[in-house]
Design a protein that fits this description.
The complex is a heterodimer of chains A (436) and B (188).
Chain A lengths: L4 E7 L11 H16 L3 H5 L4 E5 L3 H4 L4 H8 L7 E4 L5 H14 L5 E9 L5 H9 L8 H4 L2 H16 L3 H15 L13 H6 L2 E3 L2 E2 L8 E9 L1 H11 L6 E10 L9 E2 L17 E2 L5 H14 L4 H4 L2 E3 L5 H10 L8 H6 L27 H5 L3 H17 L2 H5 L11 E7 L5 E9 L1
Parallel strand pairs in A: 2-3, 2-4, 11-12
Antiparallel strand pairs in A: 1-7, 1-8, 4-7, 5-6, 8-13, 9-10, 12-13
Chain B lengths: L1 H5 L59 H8 L4 E5 L5 E2 L13 E5 L3 E10 L12 E7 L7 E5 L15 E6 L10 E5 L1
Classes of the chains: A alpha+beta (436), B mainly beta (188).
The complex binds zinc ion.
Chain lengths: 436, 188
């Protein structure tokens, strides 16, 4: 396999509803932004690009099969090769990695990965039903299919097992909302307190409305290239590209039914030992084995031994505050069971922002500097690609250019990770990107 | 009536009858749609947003899992056990996730314990009218996996971590709906 670079990206404004356009022009907004940032217009770019990968999650939300090809034709990319990928909440992350494979394999020099979701076509309660259809329709959905309920059961077990508290979870909400306050792409830009989060309406105990991401309409696009691809694009635009190298990808899976998850031994990362986890039954429903597997594979490929020392920021899939805490542990940022404390200490916060909290260790490793899904929104097929775009801008040091302010720029960011996650941890992807 | 004329067989339409689809009164009817004289103004037009119904009946087979639902109708809670490695599934799987071998049916005890729970105050449209309801995963000693169910007989407005570990007893609906909710749990 050969080196793969991310050269550009774009994100549409995420909103509760975008009735002004159908899904194709929404993707075009993101695609045009990515091209503009490269200094190219479509007719010149289309001479160079070899193909694409399309990502959207739900045929139910969309009520339009083959939406991928409708984006492909709207963008003017026909008859170049393309396919759609789908893997629940991880759809965007999978799409990004499929584009990586297309380039790494030598099949393509330049590949576009675009994704979108239109969740406003139904009301919120019907939307919850559509999402819950991503659980076993014989055994799980009919009992009271509701994803917030599933994640609530997972974190209740995390609380029981490790003593994690609701206040620790609320720290995540405060962090991500306050970060998003400075991100013009975010759907929710609010300065919140721990009390605000806990006083919000209870959705599924112990998760309140402010512990949970919202449904959105939105799109994102990324452009990946080989070295030759980068050269071709630079030659066409006459401009130097500031790419990021994608140095590792990893994926993992787990059983669809939470009830089926095993209770065995922890899948260890290089900096962990068997003695760290005596007596812990793993993953149970308190941890995401798929997230651990994805991290392990991505770290191995990127030659990362201790992620906390070797990563400068992470954009991870915080559909719930609880799952952000659980993901710290899967990714080895702290040991299993320590995620709540790690959050409360301030480690994943940005060191330069004031959150109105007394944090002991602010900014050890900023997580979701963009505001994450909780505040940016979660148009499923776009989400994992949005993370890649924000990660590229962090590594380029171009947050100020794209956000209009540099409050969220992680100073001196050299290496970052993006993490995409599907229903209760069934599919998880981790990709590692480096400044070139 | 024009339509009556058209129904006559083998008769050519008279020249004065325009050829046109018949107009109908069903579906969405919008009168007097505003429209500018200058087409350049069309890009500023507000989007047209319609409500479109979408309803389907599916023919769903429980397939190899069907005996589980027959069990519920007979007041039995069935799990499966691997014929080779002995792994026990509280939610049936007819092939073992661990070793790939076939599993046999066995009857689970009707008293288990709460492994975890939540109270749903909101939910999907289908279950919204049932809120607040309590979801639990039930565990049994010596059984390797869990079972998702509803818990009633606790106060959904006062959830507590102390519910974890609570002994719960299976109860069965008298009139089976052939859904996993034909069984539910109450404090034992
Ligand atoms: Zn077996």
């Amino acid at each position: 396999m050969r080196p793969v670079y991310m050269v550009s990206g774009g994100v549409s404004k995420f909103a509760k509803a975008r009735p002004d356009v159908t899904f194709q022009p929404m993707v075009k907004e993101a695609y045009d932004y990515a091209l503009k940032d490269l200094g190219l217009e479509h007719p010149r770019f289309v001479e160079i690009v070899d193909g694409s990968v399309a990502s959207y999650f739900s045929d139910h939300f969309q009520r339009q099969l083959m939406s991928g090809i409708m984006v492909q034709d709207y963008l003017g990319l026909c008859p170049k090769p393309s396919h759609r990928v789908e893997g629940g909440g991880a759809t965007g992350g999978l799409c990004f990695q499929e584009a990586w494979k297309s380039v790494a394999s030598g099949l393509m020099d330049v590949c576009v990965a675009y994704g979108f979701e239109t969740m406003s076509h139904v009301n919120t309660w019907k939307g919850n039903e559509f999402i819950a259809l991503a659980s076993d329709v014989s055994f799980d959905y009919p009992v009271g299919g509701f994803y917030s309920g599933y994640y609530a059961m997972m974190v209740v077990r995390h609380m029981q097992e490790f003593g994690t508290t609701v206040e620790q979870m609320a720290h995540i909400s405060v962090k991500n909302h306050n970060n998003a306050f400075h991100n013009p792409y975010a759907q929710k830009r609010k300065l919140l307190t721990i009390e605000d989060v806990r006083r919000a309406p209870m959705v599924a105990w112990p998760l309140t409305r402010l512990d949970i991401c919202v449904m959105s309409d939105g799109a994102a696009a990324t452009i990946l290239a080989s070295e030759e691809g980068v050269n071709k694009l630079e030659k066409a635009s006459g401009k130097r590209i500031k790419p990021a190298k994608i140095v590792g990808i990893g994926r993992g899976t787990d059983a669809m039914r939470m009830a089926d998850r095993p209770h065995r031994q922890v899948l260890l990362l290089p900096h962990e030992r068997v003695s760290d986890y005596r007596g812990l039954k793993y993953p149970g429903i308190h941890s995401f084995r798929a997230g651990r597997m994805a991290s392990k594979l991505a770290y191995e490929m990127a030659r990362i031994v201790n992620p906390i020392k070797e990563l400068d920021f992470i954009e991870l899939h915080d559909a719930y505050t609880s799952s952000e805490i659980q993901t710290y542990e899967d990714m080895g940022l702290c040991k299993y069971g320590e995620g709540g404390r790690w959050a409360e200490e301030g480690n994943p916060f940005l060191p330069n922002l004031d959150y109105g909290l007394a944090l002991k260790k602010p900014g050890t490793l900023p997580v979701n500097p963009s505001g994450g899904l909780i505040a940016c929104g979660h148009p499923v097929g776009a989400t994992g690609l949005m993370q890649a775009v924000f990660a590229l801008w962090q590594l380029q040091g171009s947050i100020k250019k794209h956000f209009g302010n540099d409050r969220l720029q992680v100073k001196g960011a050299r290496r970052g990770a993006i993490h995409s996650h599907a229903g209760t941890g069934t599919y998880v992807t981790v990709s590692i990107m480096e400044k070139v | 009536m024009a339509s009556a004329k058209r129904e006559r067989p083998n008769r050519k339409l008279p020249n004065e009858e325009p050829v046109a689809l018949p107009e109908t009164d069903d579906g969405t009817i919008l009168f007097n749609v505003p429209f500018p004289k200058d087409l350049a103004q069309l890009k500023a037009m507000a989007p047209i947003i319609l409500k479109q119904p979408y309803r389907i009946d599916y023919i769903h087979s429980y397939g190899q899992d069907s005996p589980f639902f027959a069990g519920l109708a007979n007041g039995k809670l069935l799990g499966t056990v691997c014929t080779k490695c002995g792994y026990k599934y509280a939610t049936p799987k007819l092939h073992c996730m661990d070793c790939g071998s076939e599993c046999d049916w066995f009857e689970l005890p009707q008293v288990g314990a709460v492994h975890t729970f939540t109270v749903c105050y909101f939910g999907s449209e289908e279950f919204l009218k049932e809120t607040p309801f309590v979801l639990i995963l039930v565990e049994w000693p010596g059984v390797d996996t869990l079972f998702l169910s509803r818990l009633i007989g606790v106060d959904p407005l006062s959830p507590s971590l102390e519910w974890v570990g609570m002994k719960v007893r299976a109860k069965f609906r008298r009139l089976s709906k052939f859904k996993p909710t034909d069984v539910y749990f109450v404090p034992a």
